[in-house]
């Protein structure tokens, strides 16, 4: 007997490609939802978006980007004032420190330019691989990996595409099975579907375009493979 997490198609590769094809048909305009006009703004927005909604980030950066327009503005800012300026953002105290520290590093080590390598980006305070991937993809058109946010993490497990649990492990598991030309878009397609249909607590399986491919579907299965927990009756 195949394990419960196994997708209905013969291989994970076929399962993944069919999911991507159907989601492209459903979300042909899928793309990043953060607002930014340059690489510094992109870096700031992505750093603020950790464990916070893009909608809230966009509301905050609308005013933030008017006040802080250069690395020097962040580097020279009073951290308490900066924290207050992003006060509606989750963990705003820590993120204010990250922004100030990263701006100082950008000035001192990168001539005031947001770096363009994974190693240099992840050396910035508060920047992990997920954030760095977004900066490279949308700031430099460099696709070196797959951004694994909470939607990608949840849907990839629900759909039987991966059994891994940690974002870093999920990314490494996805890279060989997601076509390289889809690495960037896999994230945006799953984010779109995760927001619209496959929500964390109450997915709308009846309206889902990949329901028949999903080994977690509430219509046919008892367990949410994303969490490993039974669906509520």
Automatic annotation (TrEMBL):
<feature type="binding site">
    <location>
        <position position="214"/>
    </location>
    <ligand>
        <name>[4Fe-4S] cluster</name>
    </ligand>
</feature>
<dbReference type="GO" id="GO:0051539">
    <property type="term" value="F:4 iron, 4 sulfur cluster binding"/>
</dbReference>
<dbReference type="GO" id="GO:0003677">
    <property type="term" value="F:DNA binding"/>
</dbReference>
<protein>
    <recommendedName>
        <fullName>Endonuclease III</fullName>
        <ecNumber>4.2.99.18</ecNumber>
    </recommendedName>
</protein>
<keyword id="KW-0238">DNA-binding</keyword>
<dbReference type="InterPro" id="IPR003583">
    <property type="entry name" value="Hlx-hairpin-Hlx_DNA-bd_motif"/>
</dbReference>
<dbReference type="InterPro" id="IPR011257">
    <property type="entry name" value="DNA_glycosylase"/>
</dbReference>
<keyword id="KW-0408">Iron</keyword>
<keyword id="KW-0255">Endonuclease</keyword>
<dbReference type="GO" id="GO:0141016">
    <property type="term" value="F:G/T mismatch-specific thymine-DNA glycosylase activity"/>
</dbReference>
<comment type="similarity">
    <text>Belongs to the Nth/MutY family.</text>
</comment>
<feature type="domain" description="Helix-hairpin-helix DNA-binding motif class 1">
    <location>
        <begin position="119"/>
        <end position="138"/>
    </location>
</feature>
<keyword id="KW-0227">DNA damage</keyword>
<feature type="domain" description="HhH-GPD">
    <location>
        <begin position="48"/>
        <end position="196"/>
    </location>
</feature>
<dbReference type="GO" id="GO:0006281">
    <property type="term" value="P:DNA repair"/>
</dbReference>
<keyword id="KW-0456">Lyase</keyword>
<feature type="binding site">
    <location>
        <position position="205"/>
    </location>
    <ligand>
        <name>[4Fe-4S] cluster</name>
    </ligand>
</feature>
<dbReference type="Pfam" id="PF10576">
    <property type="entry name" value="EndIII_4Fe-2S"/>
</dbReference>
<dbReference type="InterPro" id="IPR003265">
    <property type="entry name" value="HhH-GPD_domain"/>
</dbReference>
<dbReference type="GO" id="GO:0140078">
    <property type="term" value="F:class I DNA-(apurinic or apyrimidinic site) endonuclease activity"/>
</dbReference>
<dbReference type="InterPro" id="IPR003651">
    <property type="entry name" value="Endonuclease3_FeS-loop_motif"/>
</dbReference>
<feature type="binding site">
    <location>
        <position position="198"/>
    </location>
    <ligand>
        <name>[4Fe-4S] cluster</name>
    </ligand>
</feature>
<dbReference type="InterPro" id="IPR005759">
    <property type="entry name" value="Nth"/>
</dbReference>
<dbReference type="GO" id="GO:0046872">
    <property type="term" value="F:metal ion binding"/>
</dbReference>
<keyword id="KW-0479">Metal-binding</keyword>
<dbReference type="InterPro" id="IPR000445">
    <property type="entry name" value="HhH_motif"/>
</dbReference>
<keyword id="KW-0378">Hydrolase</keyword>
<comment type="function">
    <text>DNA repair enzyme that has both DNA N-glycosylase activity and AP-lyase activity. The DNA N-glycosylase activity releases various damaged pyrimidines from DNA by cleaving the N-glycosidic bond, leaving an AP (apurinic/apyrimidinic) site. The AP-lyase activity cleaves the phosphodiester bond 3' to the AP site by a beta-elimination, leaving a 3'-terminal unsaturated sugar and a product with a terminal 5'-phosphate.</text>
</comment>
<feature type="binding site">
    <location>
        <position position="208"/>
    </location>
    <ligand>
        <name>[4Fe-4S] cluster</name>
    </ligand>
</feature>
<keyword id="KW-0540">Nuclease</keyword>
<keyword id="KW-0411">Iron-sulfur</keyword>
<dbReference type="Pfam" id="PF00633">
    <property type="entry name" value="HHH"/>
</dbReference>
<keyword id="KW-0004">4Fe-4S</keyword>
<keyword id="KW-0326">Glycosidase</keyword>
<keyword id="KW-0234">DNA repair</keyword>
<dbReference type="Pfam" id="PF00730">
    <property type="entry name" value="HhH-GPD"/>
</dbReference>
<dbReference type="InterPro" id="IPR023170">
    <property type="entry name" value="HhH_base_excis_C"/>
</dbReference>
């Amino acid at each position: 007997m195949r394990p419960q997490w196994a997708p209905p198609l013969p291989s994970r590769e076929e399962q993944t490609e069919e999911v991507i094809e159907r989601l492209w048909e459903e979300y042909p305009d899928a793309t990043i939802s953060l607002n930014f006009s340059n690489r510094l703004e992109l870096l700031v927005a992505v750093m603020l978006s950790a464990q916070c909604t893009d909608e809230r980030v966009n509301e905050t950066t609308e005013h933030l980007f008017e006040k802080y327009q250069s690395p020097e503005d962040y580097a020279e800012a009073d951290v308490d004032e900066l924290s207050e300026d992003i006060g509606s953002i989750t963990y705003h105290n820590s993120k204010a420190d990250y922004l100030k520290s990263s701006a100082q590093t950008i000035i001192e080590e990168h001539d005031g330019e947001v770096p363009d390598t994974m190693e240099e980006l992840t050396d910035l305070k508060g920047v992990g691989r997920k954030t760095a991937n977004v900066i490279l993809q949308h700031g430099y058109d460099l696709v070196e990996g797959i951004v694994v946010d909470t939607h990608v993490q949840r849907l990839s497990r629900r759909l039987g595409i991966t059994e891994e649990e940690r974002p870093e492990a999920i990314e490494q598991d996805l890279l060989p099975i997601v076509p390289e030309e889809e690495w960037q878009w896999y994230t945006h397609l799953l984010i779109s579907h995760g927001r619209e249909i496959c929500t964390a607590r109450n997915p709308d399986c009846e309206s889902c375009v990949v329901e028949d491919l999903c080994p977690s579907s509430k219509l046919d299965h008892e367990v949410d493979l994303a969490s490993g927990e039974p669906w509520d009756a």
